[in-house]
Amino acid sequence: MRPLSNRPLLTVEAISLIYGESDAGLIIDTLQQFRSEALGYVIQIDTLWRTGAFDDITRYVHSLKTMAAMVGAERMARLCQVFERQLKTRDMVEAQRSYPIFEAVWAETLAEVDSYILADGEASSDAEQ
Fold first, then answer.
1. Which SS3 state, helix, strand or coil, does residue 74 take?
2. Cα 26 to Cα 17, 40, 73, 126, distances in angstroms
3. pTM for the predicted model, two decimal places
């Protein structure tokens, strides 16, 4: 497996591969849906992290891993895979180390998704003029 740092942050071509289309509108809709749902999961993970409800955190991390992989957020998906394994095996020393990385990679992923959505919106506005 490649280390986390060598993985792309966002590879939107994954959406086209999964859905079999390269429609820009589909890609933007998919990214917006990912953003909305994933943000809800990350908020839940953050809340549960403070309470120590690790089984619940594991379920949210698993769902986030799947969603991230489906939109090409490779670094987030890989980190969730590692974090999920740590939580399942109760390797709390490593999970404690991973959590700040999880937060940072989520912030980077969210910024990249927002940037892609914004760039598409600007491109659409330019095309309409």
1. helix
2. 12, 21, 16, 19
3. 0.84
